[in-house]
Amino acid sequence: MRLRKKYWARPEMENSHIVITDQYAYKGKWDIEFKNSNPIHLELGCGMGGFISEKSKQNLDINFVGIDLKDEVLVFALRKVIEVREVKGEQNVNVRLMPLNISFIDDVFEKDEIDRIYINFCNPWPKGRHNKRRLTHSKFLASYKKFLKPGSEVWFKTDDTELFEDSLEYFKQCGFEILSSTYDLHESGFEENVVTEYEAKFYALGKKAMFLRAKLL
Ligand SMILES: C[S@@+](CC[C@H](N)C(=O)[O-])C[C@H]1O[C@@H](n2cnc3c(N)ncnc32)[C@H](O)[C@@H]1O
């Protein structure tokens, strides 16, 4: 998606304690930042923040970090967290947002620091030579394993069948067990689903969401 540059986005984000711009300063110290030792869940490619704002509201005993490459969407995620969570002033909240290219994520979290990862509708990168850019590619899974606790889970949703089927293989090859998978999440009876902005758009067009839960062995 091509986005118009929003020059006001970075100053607005830097003005909020919810946005972390010194990304590498918290490795091994996220419990200090959150002022508790609750589990930490990540959303990779959080986009406009509908998922993370709602999840963090439903799970106050879990800390959430939403990561995206683009200030142009992250600034709206910030506004959504503030609106949905009714964050006022410097009140502490169980969400942080971070502008970051996920290629550098293993410098941000310490071994065994993270309890779950959500990847929702990442770019499918269909051309073979671009497959390595998929956020579920074995290359990325190897870097997530550096900070995921043993037994922790990755929850992955996509509307792209090829990406879904390749991802099932990536997870198996990288030492994850597939706990569940479905080609039609919305008809699967899974009740914990929180619909993302992207998901709402394509669901309205009659497309199906695929979903898997993989556990690190
Ligand atoms: C198709 S959008 C989905 C957004 C959201 N998860 C949803 O379901 O509505 C993919 C998002 O991933 C982000 N993204 C893609 N590659 C990334 C990377 N390497 N590092 C960080 N974010 C990335 C994009 O900026 C975009 O916001």
Please provide a written account of the structure.
The structure is a single chain. The protein has 217 residues and is α/β, with parallel strands linked by helices. It has helices spanning 9-14, 30-34, 50-58, 71-85, 138-144, 161-173, 197-204, and strands at 40-44, 63-68, 95-99, 114-120, 148-158, 176-182, 210-216. Strands 3-2-1-4-5-7-6 form a seven-stranded mixed beta sheet, sandwiched between helices. Helix 3 (50-58) packs parallel to helix 4. It starts with 8 loop residues before the first helix and ends with a strand. The mean pLDDT is 95. The structure holds S-adenosylmethionine. S-adenosylmethionine (SAM) binds at residues 45-47, 67-70, 73, 101-103, 120-123, 196-199.
What brief labels describe this structure?
single chain, 217 residues, alpha/beta, seven-stranded mixed β-sheet, globular, binds S-adenosylmethionine
The radius of gyration over CA amounts to 17 Å
Summarize the amount of helix as a percent range.
Answer: 25-40%
Distance between the termini: 35 Å
State the major sheet: 7 strands, mixed
Indicate the topology.
Layout: H1 9-14, H2 30-34, E1 40-44, H3 50-58, E2 63-68, H4 71-85, E3 95-99, E4 114-120, H5 138-144, E5 148-158, H6 161-173, E6 176-182, H7 197-204, E7 210-216
Parallel strand pairs: 1-2, 1-4, 2-3, 4-5
Antiparallel strand pairs: 5-7, 6-7
Helix pairs in contact: 3-4
The structure holds S-adenosylmethionine.
